[in-house]
Structures are given as structure tokens and as C-alpha cells.
């Protein structure tokens, strides 16, 4: 979550683009500090939930877990694997954001086609679906 929120702003700090928020804008403005405080609050919440889960796991460690068929289940906790998956997920969410940014011209074109076909009806509500098809093609 943190990587997905911060990596694009760091990128735009290194490679400025008109209308994009940079990391220096985040740390140098009240709205940016509010965003950073929100990220910190989310991290604190994740830590609290993680601690609660570990406490519950300790409490239930004496009780054997069983599946619906009555077979004993093997439970393992792998911190390194969890951290790896969460970091990769955060980085990939930033990549998804870059994909949506790169597809903005397609969304704008879809919006213009909608406006031409449907005058006086405002913007096309689903204009970003065109971008989603391309970005999510590999899934």
C-alpha cells in the first residue's frame, strides 16, 4: 500500500510531468502531509492487526486445527514470505497506476467518441474501461 502510494510521486519527482504530484509536494504541503499521516495510520492499523493475529495464533496453538472432513491441518507462519508478497504487491500496484496513466489518452478518446455520439449527456462514465482491458490483458 505504501509503495503503491509513494513510488509514483517519487517517479514524478525524478521525471517531472505537468499536473502530477511529486514526493517533494507531498512532504512540503499540508494536503501531502495529510496523505502521509493517512499512510502512517494505515501502517499502524496493519501492525495492530498483525499483532492480534499472532496473539490469537499463540492462543489457539494448543488446539489442533481440523478441516471440514475432520483431518488435522498443518498451519505455518512464514514472515519472510509474507513480507515478500506484500512488498511485491505494493510495487505492482504502483505499476498498475503507471499503466492507467499511460492509457489516459485511450480513455480520453473513448470519452470524445461518447460525447460525439451522445451530445449533452456529459462525460462517459466508463471511459477508463478501455484502459483496464489493456492493462489487465495479461491476467
Mean pLDDT: 85
The largest β sheet comes out as:
none
Query: How far apart, in Å, are the first and last alpha carbons?
Result: 20 Å
Could you say which structural class the secondary elements and strand pairing correspond to?
mainly alpha
Please write the string of helix (H) and strand (E) elements.
HHHHHH
Overall 3D form: extended
Per DSSP, the total helix count is 6
Integer-rounded radius of gyration: 22 Å
Q: In percent terms, what proportion of residues is strand?
A: under 5%
Low-confidence runs: none
Q: Count the strands?
A: 0
Residues in helix, %: 55-70%
Give a verbal description of the structure.
This protein is mainly α. It has 6 helices and no strands. It has helices at residues 2-14, 23-27, 30-60, 79-102, 104-117, 129-135. The relative contact order is 0.10. The mean pLDDT is 85.
Offer a quick outline of the entry.
With 139 residues, this protein is an all-alpha fold.
Fold blueprint:
Layout: H1 2-14, H2 23-27, H3 30-60, H4 79-102, H5 104-117, H6 129-135
Keywords:
mainly alpha; single chain; 68% helix; 139 residues
Amino acid at each position: 500500500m505504501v509503495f503503491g502510494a509513494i513510488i509514483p510521486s517519487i517517479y514524478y519527482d525524478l521525471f517531472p510531468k505537468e499536473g502530477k504530484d511529486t514526493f517533494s509536494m507531498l512532504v512540503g504541503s499540508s494536503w501531502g502531509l495529510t496523505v502521509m499521516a493517512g499512510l502512517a495510520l494505515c501502517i499502524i492499523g496493519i501492525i495492530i492487526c498483525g499483532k492480534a493475529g499472532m496473539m490469537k495464533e499463540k492462543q489457539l496453538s494448543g488446539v489442533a486445527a481440523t478441516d471440514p472432513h475432520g483431518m488435522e491441518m498443518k498451519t505455518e507462519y512464514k514472515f519472510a514470505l509474507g513480507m515478500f508478497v506484500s512488498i511485491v504487491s505494493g510495487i505492482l500496484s504502483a505499476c498498475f497506476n503507471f499503466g492507467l496513466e499511460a492509457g489516459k489518452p485511450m480513455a480520453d478518446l473513448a470519452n470524445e467518441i461518447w460525447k460525439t455520439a451522445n451530445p449533452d449527456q456529459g462525460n462517459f462514465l466508463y471511459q477508463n474501461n478501455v484502459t483496464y482491458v489493456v492493462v489487465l490483458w495479461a491476467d
